[in-house]
Amino acid sequence: MEKQWNLIEVLRHSRHDWLNKLQIIKGNLDLNRIERTKEVINEIIIEAQHETNLSNLHIPCFAEVLLKTNWETHSFLLDYEVLQDTEVAKINDVMITDWTTSFFSCLDQAIETFHENHLSITIKLEPEGFRFFFDFSGIIRSKELIEKFLKTPNSVELGLVTKEFTESELAFEVFMPKL
Predict the structure, then answer these.
(1) Which site from 40, 45, 120, 177 is most exposed, i.e. has the minimal number of CB atoms within 10 Å?
(2) Torsions phi, psi of 84, nearest 5?
(3) For the purposes of burial, counting CB atoms within 10 Å of the CB of 88, is it exposed (0-12), middle (13-18) or buried (19 or more)?
(4) Phi, psi of 34, rounded to the nearest 5 degrees
């Protein structure tokens, strides 16, 4: 069952993340590592820009899933990026959110739990809709489980196209047409 987040929990996790970032900056300053400090600050700025772009896509349910994923118990670390070439179109937020949540669950079951697993999602806005690029690297224990998921009717309906699939990498794209 999916955890329901309240405002206090969201603020607690957000504050924890910011304190960690500030400690990294402070530690680098204490060690007089000015260039590394600048790099960390630039990484924080880029991450904040991605959060802003994600929040401005008018898909609040999907944005919420991505924003809280790293606070939950998953066997992978998530990052995301939004590429904007065009104006934001309206897409089916519930459909992409439900599908992505199901994919995360499948991925958790199919990958090595205590390994450095990484999932990157790139969202590209196009005149016809949104294209989502999913790129996983890590250890996949059960390719069969993922293959089965990628062939479900919902995946097919989303026009999923697999680009690469090995024991250590999975890359595919999904297209959501505008409404």
Answers:
(1) 45
(2) -115, 115
(3) middle
(4) -65, -45
19-30 per-position pLDDT tens digit: 999 999 999 999
Cβ neighbours of residue 168 under 8 Å, at least 6 residues apart? 137, 138, 139, 140
Which band of pLDDT confidence, cut at 50, 70 and 90, is reported for residue 85? low
Positions of E strands within 68-112: 77-84
In 3D space, the residue among 72, 53, 73 whose CA is nearest the CA of residue 63 turns out to be 53
User: CA–CA separation, 133 vs 124, rounded Å?
Assistant: 8
pTM score, whole prediction: 0.88
Q: Which residues of 47-71 are buried (b: 16+ CB within 10 A; e: fewer)?
A: eeebeebbeebebeebbbbbbbbeb
Region 69-89: mean pLDDT is 89
Q: Read off the tokens for 42.
A: 């630039």
